[in-house]
């Protein structure tokens, strides 16, 4: 989908979408539009079908000869409490959704900035355009035709604004973020028979085009480096594990500013600790952490950020087979300590600890983050709005939380305690136990952090638990049902917002 910007006095002769916070036609609309819209809104409001709540819409065919064929009222009431930029984006997304529901593929959008709202007019309009693009995302490469009864595909959105020139100038950076989010969504939506450790890099043509350096550490090279934990996870699969290392050199320096490591389990059966069928249905998305890292690299490169950024995708396929690793096995990690396997469905921490150890030892970044669903217990306390974050660096954690709030991907700091280490070390035959019994000790994701922190050797570090935030179970204002691309906006805001690392 393309987004453009023009002045309100220059309509392009297509359908018009008007964002409304109340069921009244705006006074400043042309009479040829306002009259028919006002009459339709009065009827719909009287019947209780339109109160301008977000997601509601009314479509009115206009008389021939006017600047627009049709006007569509899109309700946006209920966004007032959102962060300013997110309010603009959600407004744009709801306008795009209303256009699709009305069967329109090309529309003008009139979404005036509310009085006193931030950002200024040009920024508001640019983020309205971004929201429209984000909501218009589709993953349909496996369909042989249009989905029966589905909404139209919105191909063109033109945002009407008096600051058209300034909005257009601000949009390329946002467009890079949109393309990056789409990449993360595409990767997460892709079925596991098409996306596996062997083919993962084939889906990253965008990164190659943007000049991101990519290096693969294959299974033989992992073995040479003693990275046996991730190798154990993928031992039963014909698609062997690997680390995909990406680097964007927006500036030249000895140490990277930041490294983000993402969990990339392209399918998680649970291994010998087999998942029940209802849980297994969505396990193609267990690589969403790696997808977020790939999206972040695309956003940084597309926006030309002046930063030295490293992304690492820890990629494996947790399959069943005679070679599968087992509960009771002991694995020696590259860092030295041994781990007793207690649950083959807790494979993510094994993949990440090897990747963290490698990136800390080989590249020595100034800050390190990891992201993925490793201990879903955070979901029970925080639901589908916030992601848990664990860190022992208060300043880093505070900046990350602020970035999440601004990006619409909020985080909630959760504690982990030193006494948890005693439980981790309570193996009868190895240095650590892979994961304590959840039904005895609880707080599984906190134990994940206590384990992973040992593999960054004291570097500033935070771990983000995605839980189920990688997918939307229903349409959202800026995201259709399916993969969300969670994490891309969060880290991009961390790199570019007020609290960005120096």
From TrEMBL:
<keyword id="KW-0031">Aminopeptidase</keyword>
<keyword id="KW-0645">Protease</keyword>
<dbReference type="InterPro" id="IPR043472">
    <property type="entry name" value="Macro_dom-like"/>
</dbReference>
<dbReference type="GO" id="GO:0005737">
    <property type="term" value="C:cytoplasm"/>
</dbReference>
<dbReference type="GO" id="GO:0006508">
    <property type="term" value="P:proteolysis"/>
</dbReference>
<dbReference type="GO" id="GO:0070006">
    <property type="term" value="F:metalloaminopeptidase activity"/>
</dbReference>
<keyword id="KW-0378">Hydrolase</keyword>
<keyword id="KW-0464">Manganese</keyword>
<protein>
    <recommendedName>
        <fullName>Cytosol aminopeptidase domain-containing protein</fullName>
    </recommendedName>
</protein>
<comment type="similarity">
    <text>Belongs to the peptidase M17 family.</text>
</comment>
<dbReference type="InterPro" id="IPR000819">
    <property type="entry name" value="Peptidase_M17_C"/>
</dbReference>
<dbReference type="InterPro" id="IPR011356">
    <property type="entry name" value="Leucine_aapep/pepB"/>
</dbReference>
<feature type="domain" description="Cytosol aminopeptidase">
    <location>
        <begin position="343"/>
        <end position="350"/>
    </location>
</feature>
<dbReference type="GO" id="GO:0030145">
    <property type="term" value="F:manganese ion binding"/>
</dbReference>
<dbReference type="Pfam" id="PF00883">
    <property type="entry name" value="Peptidase_M17"/>
</dbReference>
């Amino acid at each position: 989908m393309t987004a453009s910007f023009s002045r309100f006095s220059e309509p392009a002769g297509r359908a018009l979408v008007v964002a409304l916070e109340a069921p009244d036609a705006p006074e400043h609309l042309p009479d040829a539009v306002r009259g028919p819209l006002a009459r339709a809104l009065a009827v719909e409001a009287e019947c209780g079908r339109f109160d301008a709540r977000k997601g509601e819409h009314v479509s009115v065919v206009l008389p021939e000869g006017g600047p627009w064929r049709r006007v569509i009222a899109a309700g946006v009431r209920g966004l007032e409490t959102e962060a300013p930029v997110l309010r603009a984006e959600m407004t744009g997304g709801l306008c795009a959704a209303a256009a699709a529901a009305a069967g329109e593929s090309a529309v003008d959008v009139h979404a005036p900035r509310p009085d006193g709202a931030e950002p200024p007019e040009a920024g508001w309009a640019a983020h309205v355009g971004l929201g429209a693009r984000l909501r218009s995302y589709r993953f349909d490469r496996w369909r042989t035709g249009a989905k029966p009864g589905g909404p139209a595909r919105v191909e063109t959105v033109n945002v009407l604004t008096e600051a058209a020139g300034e909005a257009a100038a601000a949009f390329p950076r946002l467009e890079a973020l949109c393309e990056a989010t789409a990449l993360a969504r595409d990767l997460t939506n892709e079925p596991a028979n098409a996306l596996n450790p062997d083919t993962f890099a084939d889906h990253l043509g965008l990164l190659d085009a943007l000049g991101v350096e990519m290096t693969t550490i294959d299974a033989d090279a992992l073995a040479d480096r003693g990275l046996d934990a991730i190798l154990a996870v993928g031992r039963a699969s014909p698609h062997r594990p690997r680390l995909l290392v990406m680097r964007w050199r927006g500036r030249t320096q000895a140490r990277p500013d930041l490294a983000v490591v993402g969990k990339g389990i392209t399918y998680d059966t649970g291994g010998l600790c087999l998942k029940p069928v209802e849980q297994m249905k969505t396990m193609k998305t267990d690589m969403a952490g790696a997808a977020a890292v790939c999206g972040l690299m695309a956003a940084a490169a597309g926006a030309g950020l002046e930063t030295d950024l490293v992304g690492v995708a820890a990629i494996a396929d947790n399959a069943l087979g005679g070679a599968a690793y087992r509960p009771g096995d002991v694995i020696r990690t590259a860092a030295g300590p041994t781990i007793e396997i207690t649950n083959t469905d807790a494979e993510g921490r094994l993949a990440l600890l090897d990747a963290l150890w490698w990136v800390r030892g080989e590249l020595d970044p100034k800050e390190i983050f990891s992201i993925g669903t490793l201990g879903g217990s955070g979901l029970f306390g925080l639901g589908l709005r916030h992601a848990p974050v664990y860190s022992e660096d208060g300043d880093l954690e505070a900046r990350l939380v602020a970035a999440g709030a601004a990006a619409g991907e909020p985080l909630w700091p959760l504690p982990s305690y030193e006494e948890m280490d005693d439980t981790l070390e309570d193996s009868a035959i190895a240095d650590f136990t892979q994961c304590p019994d959840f039904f005895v000790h609880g707080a599984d994701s906190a134990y994940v952090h206590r384990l992973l922190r040992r593999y960054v050797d004291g570097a500033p570090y935070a771990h983000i638990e995605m839980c189920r935030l990688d997918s939307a179970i229903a349409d959202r204002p800026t995201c259709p049902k399916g993969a969300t691309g969670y994490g891309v906006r969060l880290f991009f805001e961390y790199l570019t917002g007020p609290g960005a690392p120096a």
